[in-house]
Amino acid sequence: MNECKGNKFLVCSEKHADSIGDALDFNTCVLSDYERVPDKGLIEECADCANSEEGLELLISSVERSVAANANASCTVRVDNKVWCIRDNYEWKCPPGRGVVENWVREIEKLSGDGEDGTGYLYLAR
Questions:
Q1: For 37-84, what is each residue's pLDDT tens digit?
Q2: Spatial distance between the Cα atoms of 56 and 34, rounded to a whole number of angstroms
Q3: Distance, CA of 100 to CA of 116 (rounded, Å)
Q4: Which run of H or of E encompasses 21?
Q5: Contact 55, 8 (CB under 8 A)
Q6: What is the distance between the alpha carbons of residues 13 and 43, in angstroms, rounded to a whole number?
């Protein structure tokens, strides 16, 4: 499967799954071992979507959101609508301290109101 076709499959699953959690579980399963996907109906819907005009439109929309967010590398991690860290060519490119998972978790907890100061918010863009 080429990368664009795979990406269409992933954005279609996001649209057709019952929740973002189901879409994440589904995508993780498909990426690691598609035979473990329990919901045959969902995989058929996603396959139909990925092979249709709808899949192409969803992929274009996803790319447009990435461009608008200035996410130009294969993995751009954003926290609070700001670039936190970038992984490109198998290498993390981060400001000091941001390449550490614990610091990323601490920042998300702070923004979600679960941090030490109890303030902030967490916004998950789809």
A1: 566 777 788 778 878 898 889 889 888 988 888 777 778 888 888 888
A2: 22
A3: 19
A4: helix 20-33
A5: yes
A6: 8
